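Reopening closed ticket. The problem is back. First fold of the pair:
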Amino acid sequence: MPSPRWIMSKQANGMASLGKEHLYKVLVIGDLGVGKTSIIRRYVHHSYSTNYRATIGVDFALKVLHWDTDTVRLQLWDIAGQERFGNMTRVYYREAMGAFIVFDVTRPTTFEAVVKWKEDLDSKLMLADGRSIATVLLANKCDQGRELDSNGVKMEQFCKDHGFAGWFETSARDNLNINEAANFLVKHIMATEHDILRTAVPDTVSPRLDRRQESGSCSGCFK
């Protein structure tokens, strides 16, 4: 499945509208039990439960956003926490445009694993221009009262040092900052997409064609 792709939407009279449809594959990764499935269920289905079973392999969910005049479809890939130790992540990561890396603020070992998840992601996936995909760090289960800064963790600097676009404290139970984090990631994905398209356009014009146009030749041109 190509990502991203654009499909012109149709108005009721059959004429093409100005809006576009964007499809983005977004990864949700992190250690076992950090709340990845709960975050996705809250975001997509507006529900929360304490009875989720551990994800096996990978699961999927689709979220549709109305973004100004455009439609954004997020294909969310819920990847099992143990998959970092296997070889399938390269397949799961393919063609993704963005990612959430999640840790549990009540379990310091899951924060320690964040760097390994980011390194695994960066080693197996990059954009067409060689950059890493937009990645947002989620400090989940903040409703349980643990203060991140009490451990001396400087989250802003940590994100800069490890290539995260930003970070949010989230709670799937309380529905805290999940929509905000998703919108933040979509903005970064769209900006990245724009940069790639802008830099790709000049490569489609050959120097020879430029010289013919400068000399006034119209051989092969359409008038």
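Second fold of the pair, where the issue appears:
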Amino acid sequence: MNQQRFLFPVDLQYFNGEKTEKATPHKRQESRKKGQVARSADIAPAFVVTLIFLLLLIGGSWMFESMLAIMRESLSTYTLWEVNPENLGRLTLQLSVAALKIVGPILGVSFLIALFANYMQVGVLFSTEPLMMKLEKINPIEGFKRIFSMRSIAELFKSILKISTCCIVAYQVLWSAKDQIPSLALMSVAEILSFAGWLIVKVGIAIGVVLIVLGILDYLYQRYEYEKNLRMSKQDIKDEYKKMEGDPLIKSKIKERQRAMAMRRMMQEIPKADVVITNPTHYAVAIRYVAGEMAAPMVIAKGQDFIALKIREIAKQHHIVTMENKPLARALYSQVEIGQSVPEEMFKAVAEVLAYVYKLRGKVK
């Protein structure tokens, strides 16, 4: 049996619905509104850990002296105070202020760094969509799928990699100080505390730097996954375009209704006209002029063929003068839109027509 062949090129990806196209700006915007952005949850904690240990390296001695001062004050002064509500209040206030001076810089820097790290990733974003209650979140089947999905497995390997790397780095830093450990027996307590503090800060900074590197790599991975999940098929792009532009049938009906409404408004204005200038059968233009209110005569209705016939019929019903002037009717129809004033080059011709109409009616304007 001969195999059938397509006689024209066919894009199989279009029919299979494969998501091979980059996301459109509209889909990116909709995804951002839902709180779906490329963000690594590891970058902010990594920077915070590193900066905290750097602060301890810079101001650790001052913090230690401040804590010793609080302990001395507590042992030398506060123990002599009489126990009463007033003294307890003063004691609590003084200790809180002293502790805030020590902890405040760390908390402030941690907050600013976390805020800056998230801002660098996603910018300014506020969305309540992730907080909304969805039944699929409590669906055990969907939960089981999420637990054993490829994304969960990838997160597991990332966690193992982070823990393993941090342990190796901490081991290397501690191992580098092995030669100094035997000499601790000959040091004073202050020297031992200083050595231990320096070693802890060194381990913390090293781990923080490693976490920053892993966080940046994680952000690149999250960016890749985000772009992959946002991909669209050619049919998705076509459907989105239709949705944004609107269904052609609906658009045509809307335009038809708009034309009908505009036609009704125009027909309602014809009884206010002073004269209708005709071709006499193909064109009809209704002119209105109110002295003192208008700077020039205005076209309030115009039409061709069937609409021109309707304009003449309404003008006849309301006893509006209909005057034949082929060149003027054609010029007004082609050059002046409804609601616009008559241009200067047509003033004389229109004025002659209006003068004749007013004379015919016995009016003077």
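Update: turned out to be a display glitch only; the data is intact. Strands lie at 275-278, 283-288, 298-304, 321-324. The chain is about 65% helix and 5% strand. Please close again.
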